[in-house]
Design goal:
Layout: E1 3-7, E2 13-19, H1 20-26, E3 30-41, E4 44-52, E5 63-64, H2 69-76, E6 85-99, E7 102-115, E8 131-138, H3 139-148, H4 157-172, H5 176-179
Parallel strand pairs: 3-7
Antiparallel strand pairs: 1-2, 3-4, 4-5, 4-8, 6-7
Length: 185
C-alpha cells in the first residue's frame, strides 16, 4: 500500500499521511516524485517512458515518466542511489478525471529528478501489474506531441518544462556532460 505525505497550501508536509487510494478518491494534496530517465543519443535528448498497464487506476495504457525511487526498482528493476538522482525542480498537478467509471482526483506537488545512468531496456525487469513496456522517446518531439494530443502520452507538461529548464541551464553553464553519460544504447 502506497502512503503519501499530506501537504499544506505551500507544499509543506503537515506531518499526516494518507493512502494513495484515499488521496486520489478525495483529492487530498500530497507530494510525489517523478524520475525522468534520460540519455543523449545522436545529439538529441531522449527520455525513457513506461507504458502504464491497462488496469492502472489512472491513464491506463498511456506512456508516462518513471515513478518515485522505491518504485523505480519495483517497477523497472533499476537500483538508483540518491547521488545518482539530480533534483530538477517542482511543479503542481491538479485535475479530476474519470477512469474505469470512477473519479480520480489528483492534487499533488511533483518533485522532479533526473536519472542519467546508462539504461539498457532489454535488461529491465518490468513489474507487469504496473508497466506493460518501456520505450525511448525524443524529449522535444514528445513534448510537442503532448501539447497537441494526449492519445498516447500522459506525461504532465509541467514535468517537461522543469526538465527542459534544468537541461538548458546546464547547457549554458557547460555542466551538461556532468549529468549526461554519452551512450548509444
Amino acid at each position: 500500500m502506497e502512503i503519501f505525505d499530506i501537504i499544506d497550501k505551500e507544499g509543506n508536509p503537515t506531518g499526516r499521511t494518507v493512502t494513495r487510494e484515499k488521496a486520489h478518491a478525495e483529492g487530498i494534496p500530497h507530494r510525489t516524485a517523478h524520475i525522468w530517465i534520460i540519455r543523449q543519443k545522436d545529439n538529441r535528448i531522449q527520455v525513457l517512458l513506461q507504458k502504464r498497464s491497462q488496469n492502472k487506476d489512472s491513464f491506463p495504457g498511456k506512456f508516462d515518466t518513471s515513478s518515485a525511487g522505491r518504485e523505480l526498482h519495483e517497477e523497472l528493476g533499476i537500483q538508483a542511489t540518491p547521488v545518482q538522482l539530480q533534483f530538477a525542480g517542482t511543479f503542481p498537478i491538479s485535475f479530476a478525471k474519470e477512469f474505469h467509471g470512477k473519479l480520480f482526483r489528483d492534487e499533488e506537488l511533483a518533485f522532479v529528478y533526473i536519472y542519467s545512468q546508462p539504461v539498457n531496456i532489454n535488461d529491465l525487469v518490468l513489474q507487469k501489474e504496473e508497466v506493460e513496456s518501456v520505450e525511448w522517446f525524443d524529449l522535444e518531439d514528445t513534448y510537442e506531441e503532448c501539447q497537441k494530443c494526449r492519445d498516447k502520452f500522459c506525461v504532465p507538461s509541467g514535468g517537461f518544462e522543469v526538465v527542459q529548464r534544468l537541461l538548458r541551464s546546464m547547457q549554458t553553464s557547460g555542466q551538461m556532460r556532468c549529468i549526461l553519460h554519452m551512450t548509444n544504447g
